[in-house]
Amino acid sequence: QVQLVESGGGLVQPGGSLRLSCAASGIMFRLYDMGWYRQAPGKQRDLVAVITSGGSTNYVNFVKGRFTISRDNAKNMVYLQMNSLRPEDTAVYYCNAAFKTTLLDRNYWGQGTQVTVSS
Length: 119
Fold this sequence. Notes:
- The protein is mainly β.
- The protein has strands spanning 3-7, 10-12, 18-25, 33-39, 46-51, 57-59, 67-72, 77-82, 91-100, 105-109, 113-117.
- Strands 2, 4, 5, 6, 9, 10 and 11 form a seven-stranded mixed beta sheet that branches.
């Protein structure tokens, strides 16, 4: 039974900050690449940030310098610190866990948490 549970979303003013959390269970967490995606109404789900099982990070250009992804393998947790938020950051944010080899392809999603940036 795999579960990814996001928390920390909410309403924030432009320029404000939020920290999203994702708690994982039912997987060998340290072996998975973890990511945050977001989806606005009527649009496709897009990658925001990834942290690999080895700790390497990558971000889409639009959030570089504003967002930071991190993980705590001892707690099976991944985080997204979001600073200098803009209205265009408004979306449902989803936690993702991925494990891919030549023999296996596993991909899991959380239920999503709403982030609204508005004055």
